[in-house]
Amino acid sequence: MNRSLWGLAAVLSLLLAAGLGAVAQEPCMITVQPGASIQTAINSAPEGAVICLPEGEWTEYVTIEKSITLRGAGANKTTIRGKSLDGPVVRVRKPADMVEIQDLTLTGAQGGKYGFGLIVLDTPVVRVSRCVVSANAIHGVVLLGSSQGIISDSTIRDNPKNGVVIYDNAHALIIDSEVSRNGWSGVTVEKDAEADIASCTILGNGTGTGGADMGIVVVGNARATITACTISDNLQSGIAVVNTSAATITACTILRNVIGVWLDGSGQATIAGCDISGSRRSATGTAGDGIQLEESSRATIRDCSLSENERNGITLKDAPVAVVEGNDIFLNGNYGVALYERPCFDKDGVFTGSVTGGRNTIPGPGEADGNQAGAGCPSALGFLMTEEGGELNRQATP
User: How far apart, in whole angstroms, are the C-alpha atoms of residue 375 and residue 361?
Assistant: First the structure.
């Protein structure tokens, strides 16, 4: 698959540009006392100023159009609450250089088109550190245009639609953060956007109605790299990769979603070293798979543990292309690996894709930790348990 163009080199460059890991904070140049205007202080501040907010709450619609640091006394102490009926709490728009937003709670954005905690438009780098973005009218954080953003050590929760939206050609790094209990999805990477999501907890999203209800959804022609995250208890899929999007998913723990990882359309993914377990059927009785591939999606699944999913460890439907190598697939409610056709399912679908691989441990019902209905279905998938491996190819020939 095509790796994210964002990739490791760009992430390292962005970290260096943002000074991630720096110990000393720059001293405050301007302090805004409760009751005074944050916007007035920003308008009068020079480029590069550090504007500090002590403990307290401000009700404002704040626009940042210059390179500054806006720093609170701690997210549990300093709050900016939205004021405008059709505006975000904070808007960052086309500064010359980096903007830092630190140690704040952004909440209470009201209704209308832009009821977000934070919106970032065509900005070189915005770094959000140790912040809480919660209970806004629509989304938590939105990056648009060609924006580049870092969200670190922050919590984005309880927003009625998406926690974080990365859209257009925006790039984002989300690291050491929690994205939880948002009404639709936790993180949405859409259109031509790119994201690296590392060491995050993506938990319990899909509490509202009308959304995708995923932990992370990569859609359109977007790209994402997801590393060492815990993604659990989301209403639908933990991770969804759909349309022509692509993702690299490495060393993640993906628990108790309706589907652990779902690929649809011509989405592509490499899934390596992950623990995917406890997927449960939805309220309507659908899914319950560790991994589900549909349509013409493509995936390499390697060195993963897929266990205790209510239906199958891996389900292959329609015409996907799957490489399945070196996995432990056990204790699933039906099969370890199953094609969406009879006799594996009581359905009239026919699998027309291909499966290759080998060196998998997939015990059957008579073995220790066996999958309840069988190791692989149909039995032609038996090569997946052999050292030499093999292929089942039903793709139409020209």
Answer: 9
Q: Is the pLDDT of residue 397 over 80?
A: no
Note whether 211 and 182 are within 8 A (CB): no
Dist CA 70 CA 128 (whole Å): 10
**Residue with the larger pLDDT of the pair 23 and 258:** 258
223 exposure class (CB count in 10 Å sphere: 0-12, 13-18, 19+): buried
| Cα-trace Rg, the chain | 23
Above 50 in pLDDT, residue 125? yes
Place of tokens 């490495």: 250
User: For 41, how many CA atoms within 13 A lie in the half-sphere containing its CB?
Assistant: 23
Residue 246 forms beta bridges with which residues?
Answer: 223, 268
pTM over 0.85: yes
DSSP code string of 115-170:
--SEEEES-S-EEEES-EEES-SS-SEEEETT-EEEEES-EEE--SS-SEEE-TT-
Instruction: Report residue 225: phi and psi, to 5°.
Output: -120, 125
Two tokens, residue 71 = 């720093």
* Token output for 78: 């300093």
- 278 vs 290: CA distance, rounded Å: 8
For residue range 340-361, what is the model confidence (pLDDT) as tens digits?
A: 999 999 988 899 999 999 999 9
**What are the pLDDT digits (tens) for 255-295?**
999 999 999 999 999 999 999 999 999 887 788 999 999 99
Q: Tokens at residue 281, please? A: 């059927």
**Listed range (52-56, 288-292, 330-334, 345-349) with the worst mean pLDDT:** 345-349
Residue among 246, 300, 298 nearest 273 (CA): 300
Return the percentage of the chain with pLDDT > 70, whole number: 94
What CATH class has 48-393?
A: mainly beta
Q: Is the pLDDT of residue 235 over 60?
A: yes
Distance from C-alpha of 218 to C-alpha of 98, rounded to nearest angstrom = 26
Give CA separation, 358 vs 138, 214, 344, 355, 387, in Å: 46, 31, 20, 10, 6
Task: List the structure tokens of 234.
Answer: 């989301």
